Amino acid sequence: MDDKWEFWIDRGGTFTDIVARDPGGRLITHKLLSENPTRYRDAATQGIRDVLGLGSSDDLPTERIGAVKMGTTAATNALLERKGEKTLLVTTQGFGDGLEIGHQARPDIFALDIELPQMLYSDVLEVRERVDAKGNVLIPLDRAGAQAGLLAYFERGINSVAIVLLHGHRYHEHESILKIMARTIGFQHISVSHQVTSLMKFVPRGETSVADAYLSPVLNRYKDRMSQELRGTKLMFMGSDGGLCNGDFFRGKNAVLSGPAGGVVGMAKVSEKAQIQRVIGFDMGGTSTDVTHYNGTFEKTLET
Fold it and tell me: Across-strand partners of 9?
């Protein structure tokens, strides 16, 4: 890597910020608008061109680039603005409203007018099947009914599907059959709950799978554009957990807090070097603002 460029990119809703390190170790910073269609197609790759002194139509010299590491609010903003992919939820018959009912948690216990959160999926397909908690098949999967239902929604223009069956985290057969059906029909993105997350509870497993199906197509379109221009270059994305993920395995469920997580980790590392024990971070972007605190240890949660 010593004889190649490295780029660290933060793509926000309004601006994209780039820190580059040249082969000699010199650091260079650059800032440009995230959306400027009259000048360039993608801010991150255009920023790399600007730093390297290339024109907007020049091919990127990937042989000179060692790695590109990136945090993005593409998924965050799509979630906040409800601009994700139109998604179908496929679930066990009788549980079509399970995610809408949720935990019945009430943030304000004395509120008379309870506003339920808006669901990310646009339609629900209940399939006839049932497996108990010990893996016994109580009702075999109605393959013909499931096939007809999936085909009907696909013909309506839905291309993304989340498959979440009762006890599907442990017993995968019915979910796997539905996945093959959906792929054969032509769904472009399929999130299967036992592959998305190992959470055993129906609601968090379902919510995570739906979020993955809702956001992954948006993220994949962006990743594909980046990969085409950076073919052969090591491309990594910041995940919600504050760690870097290989671009090939980066998906919607990992990306919800991609941009903000990078800011939190950066704040923590700077405060440690400055030997400051308690800090507050304020990350204000064009779409959202994130406020964090750090006292020497990271707090982690599996549900949010």
Answer: 18, 70
Residue 24: phi and psi, rounded to 5, are -90, 0
Give the residue from 149, 155, 154, 128 showing the smallest Cα distance to 140.
Answer: 128
**Where does 247-292 have alpha helices with state H?**
252-255, 258-273
Q: Specify the residue for token string 């982690």.
A: 300
* 8 A C-beta contact, residue 215 and residue 209: no
CB-based contacts of 133: which residues, under 8 Å, 6+ apart? 167, 170
Angstrom distance (rounded) from CA 241 to CA 258: 8
Going from the C-alpha of 267 to that of each of 15, 166, 234, the distances in angstroms are: 19, 41, 25
Q: Which residue has the higher pLDDT, 56 or 291?
A: 291
DSSP 234: E
From residue 302, give the alpha-carbon distance in Å to each of 141, 240, 292, 299: 31, 11, 17, 10
- Residue 117 tokens, joined: 């959160």
Chain segment 262-279, per-residue pLDDT in tens: 888 999 999 999 999 999
Sign of the alpha-carbon dihedral angle for 161, 166, 171, 174: negative
With contact defined as beta carbons under 8 Å apart, do 231 and 223 qualify? no
